[in-house]
Amino acid sequence: MKITISTALLLLAIGTSAQAQVPISAQNAPPAAGTGAGGVQELSFPSQPGSYSPPSTLRMTVTPQATQVQPPPVRDTPDSLRRYTECRDEADRASTSSAKMREAVGQCLQDLNARRARGE
Asked: Is 113 within 8 Å of 105 (Cβ atoms)?
């Protein structure tokens, strides 16, 4: 049986409009008393008229995770930034290959992180 594209689109549109007329409602059941933030939420989806499927129930359990403490933002001193910039410029001038440039800039970053660790 050969179906043209326009016939297929028409059938699809008819099926979609028929489904759109039937409201789908999810009934939220309140969490069980005493469960707090880690309670169980239950959603029930009733079967639609003409559907061969039984009603569906979805249960979700929410487990709260411990909040992670964010470290304070890094505040570099003007002197530390100046020293890093000078180191990077020197590495750029002295390097003869990209590998040497990466190695030298890596050393500049290690020095900067060491100054950060010392609080400079």
From this structure: no
